Amino acid sequence: MCDDFTKEQEDEAIRRMKLSRRQFAALSGTAAIAACAPNEVDAVSGSDPGPGTSSSREPLLLTKASEVSFATPDGTMDAYFVHPHPGTTRKKSPAVIMWPDIAGLREAYQIMATRLAEQGYAVLAMNQYYRNAKAPVLGSFMEWRTDAGRAKLRPMIDNLDSFAIRRDAQAAVEFLDAQDAVDTSRGIGSCGYCMGGPFTVYSTAAVPGRVKAAASFHGGGLVRDDAESPHKLMQKTQASYLFAIAQNDDAKAPGDKTALRAASESSGRPAEIEVYNADHGWCTIDSPVYDELEAERAKARMLALFAGL
């Protein structure tokens, strides 16, 4: 995931923006998002993008957000919790656990969590690196591509095996089920990007009676030889799945989609599996390969999946 193979596509995208890798890495937060998708930033700030611009966003529910923390078996998780504002809806909301990409919880994922909450969900965006540091560990995706960013994250990544993520998912479900904004009569969804892709499956395996849907976007490590491979864990779940695969990931491992389909059939778990016309990282709004059209199409499929919660 996020390897040298995808680096080639990122470099090409950065060249199209007429920036150097160093210049793009220096951008963070809204500045980096603006470099990739200026219309999206206008929509978040509430300003009018102006005539002639394209934005697929529609006026949606107002939201209420807070930085939260809760106990896990391994310490205290910090996270970003956002849900429809009580003044805009009389209904409680189904919950979603959001797993960020390898660069971790940061402003880009707070924005992405908020946009999902605007659709009527109570979203908990996780800091998967809480065992080592509070979020944000990195300010933008491209910091991961720097020597300093890689050196900072590598020891943290070593703590994130499937069992650790399952423990975190169990704690997240307990937190969500205790919130007034959450409709506990509905199932919980999980979505994840890059590193977070397999975490969505670990979540469904951790609490199969509660986490009933998982959406993986350009997820890495979904098909492996070990017993904890996500595609092998599907048989232990009660969930439905969306696997949105990047075209360059598929070119590198074309058999993964076949293995995922076989796992869906053998486990009896419904799964939508599609290779998108976009490169690894296309759904993350501060990624240099962010593709708004394909990201919105993938998001629409996630919303269709979560409608069944």
From TrEMBL:
One of its GO terms (molecular function) is hydrolase activity. This is Dienelactone hydrolase family protein. Gene3D superfamilies: alpha/beta hydrolase. It holds the Pfam family DLH. It comes from Pontixanthobacter luteolus. Keywords: Hydrolase. Residues 78-307 form the Dienelactone hydrolase domain. InterPro entries: AB_hydrolase_fold (IPR029058), Dienelactn_hydro (IPR002925), Dienelactone_hydrolase-like (IPR051049). It comes from the Bacteria.
